[in-house]
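#data-curation
PF: Archiving a pair of folding outputs for the training set. Convention for this channel: one message per protein, sequence first, structure tokens after, nothing in between. First:
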Amino acid sequence: MATKRERVLAALRGDPVDRVPLSFWLHNFVAENSAKGLADETLRLARVFDWDFLKPQSRAQCFAEMWGLTYRPSTDRAIQYSVTQTPLAGAADAARLSPVDPRTGALGEQLDALARIRAGVGADTPIIWTVFAPVMVLPYLLRGGREQALAIARTEPKAMDAALRAIAETLAAYARACVEAGADGLFYATNIARADSLTAEECRRFQRPHDLRILAAVETAPFNLLHVCGPAVHFDEFADYPVAAFSWALGGGNPSLSDVHRRTGRAVVGGLPAKPEIASMGAEQLAVRARSAVDEMRGRALLLGPDCSINPDTPEALLHAAAAVVRPGSPR
């Protein structure tokens, strides 16, 4: 039987595997507010489910915290935080952003959590660590959110460029620090490259240069993954990215698992539903989805995982049902 690392790396290469690797990821909106809390919850999940690789759920706002976002922590694992201060009023504020030291503040805390997780699981379990694309971070900082970010891109692009450069410089340094702290690569995510947000041309202007800068900082890591979130994504804009695997939501005008593998030659991570769909499914329904994904990919170049994060209160029996498809004898 292969080790977890051997299994995952073989799947990334498209080689035969003893079984298809599997993982899930989910927020615990209470535990993620400290390095120890995030590490302890990640290690608990690893013990309960014995996943083949880990994608710990850093709190989504941690990147924006580096430039002044503040929040009120949640007291319920399934309810998100509440923003208490959004620092940027408009384009002029965005243009004044400067790079910051990613080993301090909220990102320094994430690096602490990563080091704790690596120490807890040992060397054999691959870990991918979340980094948001700069164009995904900026809306968290603006009082008008995504709509305001899009407006700045279209009316004051130089301000947008300046803000994204500062964020990208910071996140490139953070990416390197993540690998140094024990990550096997990035879960590099964007949620704005879709039909209702950036156009394909805008992706090339505001997304691509900064993405490639950050990915270049960790180009030797074995498990860099690009996650393109949402329906109707501009997948063609990312097909040549220098990553080992792609992740995205199935359906909603997006390509299939086998289509992306055919077009890119890279492994695919997915096949299972995310929130909110998974919350309404039964164990056999989820098992059917898992079997379908394995059959579609003929068990090669596939790592089973959700389209995006799953509901924090997803019943454990559901996750064991998915595992039983690729690990006969797993608890149901």
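PF: Second:
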Amino acid sequence: MHSFLLPILNFIHGDGITVLPQMELLLLALGILIFDFLLEKNEKHWNAGLALVGVSASAFGLIMQAKRFNLEHQARPGLPGLPGFQNTVVIDGYSVFFSAIFLAATGLVILLSVRYLDLEREQEGEYYALILLACIGMMFMASGTDLIVMFLGLETMALSFYVLAGYLRREKHSNEAALKYLLLGGFSTAILGYGFSLLYGLTGSTSIWEIGNILDRRSEFVAGLGMADWLLVLSFVTIAAGLFFKVAAVPFHQWAPDVYEGAPTPIAAYISVASKTASFALLVRLFFGVFGRSEPMWQGLVAGVAIASLTWGNLAALTQTNIKRLLAYSSISHVGYILLGLVAANETGLTGMVYYLIAYGFMNIGTFAIVVVLRQRGIIGDELDDLDGLYQRNPAAAVLLLIFMLSLAGVPPTAGFMGKYFVFLALIESHHPALAVFAALCMVPGLYYYFRVVVHAWLKKPGDVPAPVMSNAQAIALGAALFVTLAAGLYPEPFTRLAHYALGIQR
């Protein structure tokens, strides 16, 4: 037995530690698929418990990673990260932080899914297995330092979401959402893959650190000749287009409203939060690791996409009557705010981006959780009219909805306000006052459509619809979302420290 365990322990203490959380999720995902065959139809909800065990085990593995990285970092203060598998993945504050966000979002979505799937009569093990596989892909997107690993992580996440978006097989909207997501997603993947191939052709390497060093020397040489490096520009534009699709930035946002509306509501929340966060994690590592010296080249492009996302997202949300479509256009406007932090490209801007992703993740999952609570037998519950009189029917849900709407609108003292504050401050510090003023003005239409939701919940008369009932699992998920939404607004310092840890900023 000792001779059998020794190689496993040596592997875990070596390269294995760099992928330990992903391996634990994979084992539990496969376990769910096997365990599902042993369960009767009325016992399928136990799959959710096994999925939560997987999330917990992966979180323990992540803690081991963080301890290992912190010990090595204390021994060698200048250490950027612990590489593994021939420098294709890395353990650093960035990967640990984002992996923790992915696990938190995964756990909340699993809690929201149990009763929802019971109502839809779609309680199957593959649903939870796909959620865990999507989380694995996102973790590799954050920890990968090789183009191939990043691409495989992105596709693992995307393929899982294509299936999950169409999980309600008897619903035409769900089938349509999955098909549209698959076709447009495949198109964006082709563009991104072309950009990656250009980088490989220019540098002869797939390691982003080697690519960055080679491109720096190439940029100096080309600049000395007084020429423009059009191949580098083309590679950046194609990579940016592929990633802007994943975060649903204008003009690559067309898929978002239909997918959010048609996908199962917990999956819409997962795509909105986790997929967007993972794509931003990949985008920031690529932009600064590969195109860091070319910042003047891409700053204007990113600013233009941010302005377009803020404008279209807010204007399109004004006319929506479906809550999930409204949240889809709302998420497009939030992408604009996050991209403005990238435009500032200073310490405050990057801190603001990471902080905003924390705030957005929990307040958006909280809002989708209310829509999940509204789902009852025979009642879909995702139209604004379904919110009528929510305060009389379920006061707790109405209060929670109010807090999440205030945070999404950026009203103090919520996390959404602090996220916008950091972005505005970063723009002013980086001498972009016009962008800061424009972003502040874009909050005005947001106040209208968010408070429109509040009006339906608090001021409209309730109809004949029965009062929505909140399950214990949904209450736990809503409690966690509420805590972060308020705590990050009232006492932001711990969350800014987390952002500094992710970015490697010493304080």
